[in-house]
Prior knowledge:
The chain is an alpha+beta fold. It has one domain: Cyclic phosphodiesterase (Cyclic Phosphodiesterase, Chain: A, Alpha-Beta Complex), CATH 3.90.1140. The chain is built from 3 helices and 10 strands, in the order E-H-E-E-H-E-E-E-H-E-E-E-E. The chain has helices at 11-25, 50-63, 96-111; strands at 2-8, 29-32, 39-47, 70-72, 74-82, 85-92, 124-132, 147-149, 151-158, 165-173. A 4-stranded antiparallel sheet has the order 3-1-9-10, covered by helices on one side. Strand 9 (151-158) and strand 10 form a beta hairpin. The mean pLDDT is 93.
Amino acid sequence: MRMFVALELPDGLKAEIADLSRTLSRGCGGRFVDHEGYHLTLAFLGVIDEMGVALAADALDEACIGMAPVRLVPNGLGKFGSSRDATLWLGFAPEPELVGLFGRVRDGLRVRGLPFDEKPFSPHVTLARHACLSEGTLSVTSLPAETDAACVTLFRSTLSPDGPIYTPLHTVGWE
């Protein structure tokens, strides 16, 4: 199974991001992500078996012990790739709680021998794939409001012609 761990976003933030995406879609082409698919990836595990899923769930349980809500501070738009075929994203400030959660999740996966993508942490939510960005597309007048998140999920990602389908397998929440 193709798996990743993500911080889930509160519904209010998802709605604000969807509004931002609608505005951006007027100025660029591409395949925009449905608001139900918004998440902030903490670790991409790739393909793991059932035992790996159980170990990853255990890592999440341990990483979230004693967690306080994680502050999410949108801090701008960006892209990966070229302007003609970009992944468009909304970035978030590396707040201490967010960076700490990222480290705890990855440490838990590492201790359990689970491989994951070791790329440096770049907190973001993907808005569109295969976007064609024109000059000024990334300049917006307002970003979503700051908010807190308190839920991490292990997701299975199934690729389809219409885009990935995310299925939650294990969720840990806190207050």
